[in-house]
Amino acid sequence: MATGMFPRLISLAAVVLLASCRQDTPVVAEATAQKPALRHDAAVLALLQERYGAPAQLKGQWAQQLDDSNMSSARPVHREVCADRGVAIGQDRYRMLAVCTSYDNATSIELGTSDFIVLREAVDGTMSLAAELPGRASGVGGKPGAINTLQVGAGAWAYQIDDELVMVGSMMRNRSWLLFDGGGKVADAGWLRVHLDDHNAIECNGAGRCAHGRLDLNLDVQPDDSQPGLRYWPLRVQETGNGCKGRVNKAHVITYDPAQSRYLIPTELQLEGCA
């Protein structure tokens, strides 16, 4: 009888040992497994929180305190994702983001800032940094200018920034572009003045005769997609209103120079006033 029990004891020990090995296997797997890769919105949010802290979010504003060497205490600011667009360039997909920072208790002439971030989307949906341009100043009253995204070529997209500046006797609106073409940078591609008037200016001659300013110019600017296959579309500009020499109704075509990463904007479209 003792002889018959011995094989059964060996079998029982083998079952216990096998069960023990099976129980240990998931533990080992958990210890060696990597965290799952974040995808799409989750990956974008993780990047924002890594850069700006836990309060960062994809929708709506969040408040923070920033150290400012010009102030005795940390400065309060508000941030938000002010542009967010998925785009395709060739076979690659990207996510164009802008994070705008507005400074609380700002003076009327103080600018806001924006960080421009382009992420590349892999086939599996994970995201990685493709290009960025942080800390670009724009706007007025501590708030950055209005930001939009638009296609500017078969192989190019741009952030478009609109600023308004009120000076003594005059008002200006400027438009600038930051271009991304799938390379490793967000290029500051130039600017022009889309509105200029000096309605509140008073000009006086030597005889003491005074008159209000005469400038009132508007520029309508659109990417020219009439040849959609072009990698970089030109800008089509229609200038109308009252200029330094009288009525104006003039068309301009502004081309993009890839070698300089800029639109070739004539100085006459950056007019500040009449000489």
Summed up, what is this model?
The chain is α+β, with helices and mostly antiparallel strands and 275 residues long.
Spans where pLDDT lies below 50 across 5 or more residues:
1-32
Global morphology: flat
Task: Give the number of helices.
Answer: 2
Mean pLDDT: 85
Distance between the termini: 120 Å
Describe it for me?
- The structure is a single chain.
- The chain is α+β, with helices and mostly antiparallel strands and 275 residues long.
- Helix content is 16%, strand content 48%.
- It has 2 helices and 16 strands.
- It has a 7-stranded antiparallel sheet, with no helix packed on it. A 5-stranded antiparallel sheet has the order 1-2-3-4-5.
Name its key features.
275 residues; five-stranded antiparallel sheet; single chain; alpha+beta; seven-stranded antiparallel sheet; disordered N terminus
Topology:
Blueprint: H1 2-32, H2 40-52, E1 62-66, E2 75-89, E3 92-103, E4 112-121, E5 127-138, E6 146-153, E7 156-167, E8 170-180, E9 187-197, E10 202-204, E11 210-212, E12 216-223, E13 235-243, E14 246-254, E15 256-257, E16 262-263
Antiparallel strand pairs: 1-2, 2-3, 3-4, 4-5, 6-7, 7-8, 8-9, 9-12, 10-11, 12-13, 13-14, 15-16
